[in-house]
Design brief:
alpha/beta; TIM Barrel; 2 domains; binds 3-methyl-2-oxobutanoic acid
Length: 260
């Protein structure tokens, strides 16, 4: 699973036969430049998710429900989830949860909405998580996390996503559930892995998390291309005459007469 936020990238992911695409609310950070994901709006995400679906018709598409689009009430959660499923063509929606939102997940599942439950580090509640840090490192927190995973399965979730949890905890959760478990910074024992597109191709220019392997570095080639374009325009090298539109000779002569 990889994240994706636009049509052109979605086409490449489709050609690469990536099984699962997440249109994550990390969009707010990597594309809109927000400090956190909390400012992302449903309409933002529904619009780009539709574009991703057009570019990648084959992947299992997961829409990420943004901050406060599902926490206020089950009714609002169902209504907003419907936009991702019916308008954007998602196969499933992802919500950042713990046991306190089990009732909402249950109501969404009962309303025929496939739900992926995101557990562990929940960036939408970063303040209460005490910052971007691994969750469930001590035995008591780990036990709560393992219980939460079971509670989400019982509530009707169709998949789990574990973010920033110790490998041992991810393994216990994966072995103890029938659901597919996708990990990010959760070790190799999950059923699948997700990375944020900008991190894995080195697009952001910053320092991606240590757990996010860079499979390409596209920042420098893009910088080189932009700089070369700029200097070629200044130097009159681009565009060259041979690819520039020309008038037919007779029309050029006629124009000269008309202007003289
Ligand atoms: O929004 C997102 O991209 C995510 C991933 C970090 C899993 O939730």
């Amino acid at each position: 699973m990889l994240t994706c936020y636009d049509f052109a990238t979605a086409r490449i992911l489709d050609e690469a036969e990536i099984d699962c695409i997440l249109v994550g609310d990390t969009y707010g950070e990597v594309c809109l430049g927000y400090e956190t994901t909390q400012r992302v709006k449903v309409d933002h995400l529904v619009t780009i998710t539709e574009a991703v679906r057009r570019g990648a018709p084959h992947a299992y598409l997961v829409g990420d429900m943004p901050y406060l689009s599902y926490q206020v009430s089950p009714e609002e959660a169902i209504r907003n989830a419907g936009k991702f499923i019916a308008d954007a063509g998602c196969d499933c929606v992802k919500v950042e949860v713990d046991r306190r939102l089990a009732g909402t997940v249950e109501r969404m599942a009962a309303a025929t909405i496939p739900v992926m439950a995101h557990l562990g580090l929940k960036p939408q509640s970063i303040q209460s998580a005490g910052g971007y840090r691994v969750q469930g490192k001590n035995a008591e927190d780990a036990k709560l996390l393992i219980e939460d995973a079971k509670i989400m399965e019982e509530a009707g979730a169709v998949a789990l996503l574990l973010e920033a949890v110790p490998t041992e905890v991810a393994e216990i959760i994966s072995q103890g559930t029938e659901l597919p478990v996708i990990g990010i910074c959760a070790g190799p024992r999950c059923d699948g892995q997700v990375l944020v597109f900008h991190d894995m191709v080195g697009y952001g220019g910053g320092h991606p998390p240590r757990s996010a392997k860079q499979y390409a570095q596209i920042y420098q080639p893009l910088l080189d291309a932009f700089q070369q374009f700029s200097s070629e325009v200044r130097d009159g090298v681009f565009p060259p005459m041979d690819t520039s539109p020309q008038m037919p000779v007779d029309q050029k002569e006629l124009l000269q007469k008309l202007l003289s």
